[in-house]
Amino acid sequence: MHFLDLVKLRQSNRAYGDTVVEREKIERVLEAGRLSPSANNAQSWTFVVANNAETKNRVADATHTLGGSFVRQAPVIIALVAEKPILISRFGSAFKKIDFTSLDIGIAAAHICLQAAEIGLGTCMLESFDEKKAKIALGVPDNRRIALLITLGYPADRQREKKRKAFDDVVRWNRY
Ligand SMILES: Cc1cc2nc3c(=O)[nH]c(=O)nc-3n(C[C@H](O)[C@H](O)[C@H](O)COP(=O)(O)O)c2cc1C
Question: Residue with the nearest Cα to atom 21 of ligand 1?
């Protein structure tokens, strides 16, 4: 598959079948996250996989998404936990006033979702959740943040056309 076709294939899946996702496939998806780039190669993340039904449902119950049942349908939820940035990243973030850990986690999330799509799995990134509840469900310490949750499972929704701004609205050549 060409990369751009994979980009078009990945979408936020908000319906899942109940087929169990094979452990090797979950690991492959996580490997794509592990190998993704980060500022100063800081890798300030931990991927916490909720794949036993009880834990996963507790995390799902912490989410706020409209029609939130799709999160419960997903057999797996991955929490992307932001670890403390290494010193050089902390300086860089303070200097540039950009939170590099969040950028890095976004890039890891994209790798995870694209890898999932390539092997026929569906994902949806979720920022809308009760972080405290999700942290308790997963035993994440108080001094860490859950930046993002990602549902993972066999998708049961139809493939949609992408709704995006026009190319010329978001691209400038040589000058803003
Ligand atoms: C950082 C981030 C957070 C998101 N949070 C949510 C969310 O809480 N609930 C939800 O249903 N979708 C969420 N989404 C999915 C977006 O709504 C979706 O990516 C966007 O509408 C484009 O659609 P597509 O992913 O199907 O191409 C999130 C996406 C990103 C990148």
Answer: 12
